[in-house]
Amino acid sequence: MGAEALAGLALGLLLVAPPFLPPYFLEILITVMLFGYLGAAWNILGGYAGQFSFGHAAYFGIGAYTSTLLFLRLGVTPWLGMLAGGGLATLFGLFAGYLSFRYGLRGPYFSLVTLAFAEMLRVVAVNTKAVGSSLGLVIPNREPMPVNFVFAGKLSYYYVILAMTVAAVWVTRLVARSKLGYSLRAIRENEDAAEAAGVDARGMKLRAMALSSFLTALGGTFYAQYFAYIDPTITFGPSVSIQGLLPAIVGGAGTVLGPVIGAFVLTPISELSRAALRGRAGVDVMLYGLVLILVISFLPQGIMGWITKRR
Amino acid sequence: MYGLVAFGLSLIFGVLRIINFAHGAMMMLAMYATYWLFTLFKIDPYVSIVITAPAFFLFGMLVQRVVIEPNRLAAEHNQLLLTLGLALFLENLALVLWQGDFRTVRPPYAGASFVLGDALVEVPRLVACGGAVVMAVVLFAFLRVTDVGKAIRALAEEPEGAMLMGINVASIRAVAYGIGAGAVAVAGALVTPFFYVAPDVGESFNIMAFVVVVLGGMGNFVGALLGGFIVGLAESLGATLLPGSLKQLVVFALFVLVLLFRPAGLFGGGRGR
Questions:
Q1: Whether B37 contacts A263, CB under 8 Å
Q2: Looking only at Cα atoms, what is the longest distance across chain B?
Q3: Which among A120, A238, A286 has CB closest to B92?
Q4: Highest-confidence range of A114-128, B66-80, B131-145, B245-259, by mean pLDDT?
Q5: Strand partners, B104
């Protein structure tokens, strides 16, 4: 109960405080939330089902490109484009998942195949003129129009991503407490034993895949609308996949709040290091690498695992 | 050429059962080492192998001892993430230290080439190819003949049995990782004369090396060499058939197909785990 009260208090603070924050902190908070959101989406498949995808960039990119293209070419509002992107990403996720699970790819083999799928999409995007090839797509400067997912200030974007993150955490909580969640954890611990106990492993993993890819795609649309620019490397590149799994691993894979906590730890590290070493590109990712090594060596269950163990 | 990069990877997988994401980053570091030795001390890239290969052997052993060995019993995916973290760290360390500029090493023979039939053969590429074959033979002989080589193979096949026979498994693992790093250092020196050096150069080799290793069968050295040829062929075939960088698509497609249908490699028997 104490944990829930604490989470409620934190949420209250996240709802009330931002209007009084300087713009710089607001931007950081948006990054934290997007990071945490992607982590939560990855966590459903990677954390609960133990299927370590290294290719969530595929779904992120599909989401970003679908909504942006629908908006630029057909004038469809990104709110609808978001759902279309989510649907498309789910289909792609089911396709990739079906192939991998059907042929029994597990562990590192699954990671490699997801990485390959994402890289294939990146290469296709780079070479397709219709989607802007390597130059990417710019959403031209527009009047603030909430109907079209364009807001006047950063504050509104913040509340959108906050709502999305809360929703993702809420979905995770639902999953964790459902039959699906128990099945996924059984699969993660021992897939053969789970199947022997009557768990439909492939079906359950595909469900986790569908949820995870759908949510990730929505994050892609948010990214596109917030930054108004996407290109193949930003959206389909391996770094996006890493950004999805990093907060979950650091915060605690397979826990409800882990990814968000991970994002709250990671983002300030990168922001501080960037401020400390101005103009040196790469410092933040270098530290991410270091944090990843340290967390796996000393806190293999992530921050959440550490907290529960200390209790 | 990819074959040579893949050797080390295959060796490390065979012995340590780890898919080493940091392999490309090691190669990148080796290329930088070659670059600096050439720029600062005018040491020819091929000569510099004498320095870089032992240095990377030691560096590899150190990395294995400090970072990987303590986590040997951790879950498989955590070890995967460990090497990923290592790769991120090394790659961005290079970016911080040397910026993202493309650098090149141009010894006098860099542009040398001769015509063979209707094909133009560039000398540095030929040397790299020959070097890969020599390296393969040397490594193969090493694994067959020497005691350490035999211990490595024993460890790859039956870790517990090897331990019971009195093999110091921890140090053999470190040696195997060191050899992997040394092999990649040789590869780095061999490609530098006709390639560029940049912090993210390892990534492209990394992915190709994965493809090669999976094609050839994890832990299978001859397979790695053949896999290297296949990937090279697929890439050049893709380049003639498809415009731009779409050639990579052919390689990835090949990769996915092999992973799905022959996870133990084209030449391995049956399926992977």
A1: no
A2: 58
A3: A286
A4: A114-128
A5: B196
What are the tens digits of pLDDT across the range A115-173? Answer: 888 888 888 888 777 777 777 787 776 677 777 777 777 888 888 888 898 888 899 88
* Predicted-complex ipTM score: 0.72
Place of tokens 């050797």: B7
Q: CB distance A105–B260 less than 8 Å?
A: yes
Residue carrying structure tokens 């065979």: B14
CB contact under 8 A, A112 and B95: no
Element (H, E) at A138: strand A137-138
User: In chain B, what residues touch A100 (CB-CB under 8 Å)?
Assistant: 260
CA distance A58 to chain B (A): 14
Per-residue burial over A138-150, b = 16 or more CB atoms within 10 Å of its CB, e = otherwise: ebeeeeeeeebbb
**Above 70 in pLDDT, residue B9?**
no
Query: Of A50, A108, A286, which is closest to B19 when you measure between CB atoms?
Result: A108
Q: What was the pLDDT predicted at A263? A: 86
Q: Which chain B residue's Cα is nearest to A298?
A: B71
Report the percentage of chain B scoring pLDDT > 70: 70
Mean pLDDT of chain B: 72
**Which chain A residues are Cβ-neighbours of B86 within 8 angstroms?**
289, 293
Size of interface A-B (CB pairs under 8 A): 135
- Using a CB-CB cut-off of 8 Å, the residues of chain A touching B272 are 109
> Is residue A225 less than 8 Å (CB to CB) from chain B?
no
Out of B75, B249, B256, name the one closest to residue A113 (CB).
Answer: B256
